[in-house]
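Fill in residues.
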């Protein structure tokens, strides 16, 4: 586990399991280490473990961790998990909407991406340059 916490890219199921099962009472990984773990995860099993850790430790509302989790789920071909992360977001931001729109676009789900864009606008959330970039691909 020390290798993961220190920033090494090597993963074993045991190390990731140990890291993600760290309790609130022990030394938990920092948000930066969690971002690193999310970005380096190459399997759905690892992402699900990290996601469970975030939920257990009250970190599921962190916008940066949510964004990274959405992107990683989508890159592994699990768009539905990305949608679930978005739906559990208490106050979606332009970043969470843009991530989900982008994930739909890269999975060739253009109509659903457009529906999300309209939903974002109806909630008075202003799109940014990245949102427009994703929408141009539809």
């Amino acid at each position: 586990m020390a290798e993961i916490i220190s920033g090494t890219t090597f993963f074993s199921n045991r190390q990731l399991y140990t890291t993600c099962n760290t309790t609130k009472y022990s030394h938990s990984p920092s948000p930066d280490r969690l971002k690193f773990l999310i970005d380096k995860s190459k399997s759905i099993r690892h992402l699900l473990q990290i996601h469970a850790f975030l939920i257990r430790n009250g970190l599921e509302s962190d916008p940066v961790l949510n964004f990274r989790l959405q992107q990683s789920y989508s890159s592994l071909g699990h768009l539905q998990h990305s949608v679930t992360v978005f739906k559990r977001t208490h106050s979606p931001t332009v970043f969470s909407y843009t991530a989900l729109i982008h994930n739909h676009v890269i999975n060739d789900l253009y109509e659903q991406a457009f529906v999300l864009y309209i939903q974002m606008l109806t909630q008075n959330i202003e799109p940014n340059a990245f949102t427009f970039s994703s929408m141009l691909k539809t």
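The chain has two domains: 30-85, 92-137.
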